[in-house]
Specification:
Layout: H1 4-29, H2 32-39, H3 44-51, H4 56-69, H5 71-79, H6 83-90, H7 95-104, H8 107-115, H9 119-131, H10 135-141, H11 148-151, E1 158-160, H12 165-174, E2 183-187, E3 193-198, H13 199-204, H14 211-214, E4 222-223, H15 228-238, E5 242-246, E6 252-257, H16 258-276, H17 282-285, H18 290-321, H19 332-355, H20 364-395, H21 398-428, H22 439-459, H23 461-465
Helix pairs in contact: 1-2, 1-3, 2-4, 3-5, 4-5, 7-9, 8-10, 15-16, 18-22, 19-20, 19-21, 19-22, 20-21, 21-22
């Protein structure tokens, strides 16, 4: 199994390469009829991947053919493209063309496209959405960003509890406009969600049995304002292919399907990774615009600059106060680097546990912090002993070894404590916890390590100078 996956990926890449070369030849000859015929044989998801291989002008030509000849598939191709390519393409289309695409795709996909647009184009399209009375899109845009209401698909399938199994199966067979039916949701006469049953259970039951007798009354559901990360956690915890979404009155208003849940997981992982690196998901959208990307990265760079300047001030202060012990500066990179690494590791694990909902219990966070302190203590002892031995070999002074070793033994657990506590604290304050692993935390660890090192050096200064 381990050997099959790379071969499958290579085969897929090869098919896309052949398809791209064929499309390129047809475009060069102006054989648009051949391009149309070829596009009609390829799935929208594969077309989106192939478009990545063309330049902007060719990509636009192919997409305009899709709009004219396959308008129902063009929207699916659009949602499958990379953010930067999608934005570049949309900027070449008229707002009327974009609004026409939004009309043909599911409401949740239309909301996804609108959310990915720059403010000016987003507002312009919203005016067209209002004019065209796309009430479903308007309604979902009214929900908070990154909520279940924004993410849900309103094309759901539900039946009253009094309907029999025979009539339920007949209703499913007639319901051809629903995108995906994973479960049959059951409502009361007022539209309240009261149960759910699987299609398997439906097929295994007697035809005359009412849904009220076979449904499961304990329904895993989320509110329209539930954060999309929590929706993904619920789906993962209970192995669901879809999660029902209800309003304040328990009315079933939509479902979040497994494809959207996968998108959420990928989006959140990418966003956290970018924020940990000191940038944001906007970089994916504007990757070809140097000044825009630089502006996105600048705030975190300024935080790093402030931290490094603070470290420089501490070093200059030490140099002026202890001119006879400048050899201590040789171990500053060690004191800055190792606590920073331990603190970053603790913050990364805290982010993972936070995303998985591991801090829900009252005693979970203290237990987690305790484990991180123990691990950092062991690492601090091991690294401290090795660094002390190196310092002793370097200067032939046991007090220097003691200062370096103790500094690591103290600074590494302190850095782990800061790294473990910062993400949960930021989450409590409703701030992005991923920022905790970025330049801000690195700067804090650097300053913390230097302060501990120089404090111990001051204690041992008489022996060090001798």
């Amino acid at each position: 199994m381990l050997f099959c996956r790379p071969l499958m990926e290579t085969s897929s890449d090869r098919r896309q390469e052949v398809l791209a070369e064929t499309l390129a030849r047809f475009l060069a000859r102006g054989a648009h009829a051949n391009v149309t015929k070829l596009l009609g044989r390829v799935r929208p998801e594969d077309v989106a991947a192939v478009l990545e291989r063309f330049d902007a002008a060719e990509r636009l030509d192919i997409f305009r053919l899709l709009i004219s000849d396959f308008p129902d598939s063009a929207g699916d191709v659009l949602t499958g493209m990379e953010p930067a390519r999608r934005l570049a393409l949309l900027e070449e289309l008229t707002p009327e063309q974009i609004a026409g695409l939004l009309e043909r795709i599911p409401v949740d996909d239309a909301v996804f496209v609108l959310e990915s647009l720059p403010p000016a184009l987003h507002d312009q399209l919203l005016e067209l959405v209002d004019l065209r009375e796309l009430t479903g899109v308007q309604a979902q845009l009214a929900y908070p960003e990154h909520s279940a209401g924004r993410l849900m698909d309103t094309g759901l399938f539900a039946l009253p509890e009094t309907v029999t199994v025979r009539d339920s199966i007949a209703a499913i067979q007639e319901k051809r406009d629903v995108e995906m039916i994973f479960y049959l949701y059951v409502t009361d006469r007022d539209g309240h969600l009261i149960g759910v049953t699987s299609l398997r259970q439906l097929l295994m039951s007697k035809p005359e049995t009412p849904l009220s007798e076979i449904m499961q009354r304990s329904v895993i559901k989320v509110h329209v304002e539930t954060d999309q990360e929590e929706v993904a956690r619920q789906a993962s915890r209970y192995d669901l292919l879809a999660v029902p979404v209800v309003d304040d009155h328990n009315h079933l208003v939509g479902i979040v399907t497994v494809d959207d849940i996968i998108d959420v997981v990928q989006e959140e992982a990418a966003d956290d990774l970018l924020r940990m690196a000191g940038t944001s998901e906007g970089e994916l959208l504007y990757e070809g615009r140097v000044l825009r990307v630089a502006r996105l990265r600048l705030p975190q760079m300024l935080i790093s600059l402030a931290g490094l300047l603070a470290t420089g001030v501490l070093l200059a202060s030490f140099q002026s106060r202890f001119p006879d012990a400048l050899f201590l500066l040789a171990f500053v990179p060690v004191i800055m680097g190792l606590p920073g690494s331990v603190g970053g590791q603790a913050a990364a694990v805290a982010l993972r546990d936070l995303a998985a909902g591991q801090f829900a219990g009252s005693g979970n966070l203290p237990a987690f912090v305790g484990r991180q302190l123990k691990v950092a203590g062991v690492l601090g002892l091991a690294c401290g002993v090795l660094a002390a031995a190196a310092a002793l070999a370097f200067q032939r002074n046991p007090w220097l070894g003691a200062a370096v070793g103790l500094a690591l033994l103290v600074a590494m657990p302190l850095a782990a404590l800061v790294g473990a506590l910062t993400p949960p604290l930021l989450a409590r304050l409703r701030l992005d916890p991923a920022v905790a692993s970025g330049p801000l935390l690195l700067a804090v660890h650097d300053v913390l390590g230097i302060l501990v090192y120089f404090a111990l050096a001051s204690v041992f200064l008489r022996h060090l100078a001798g």
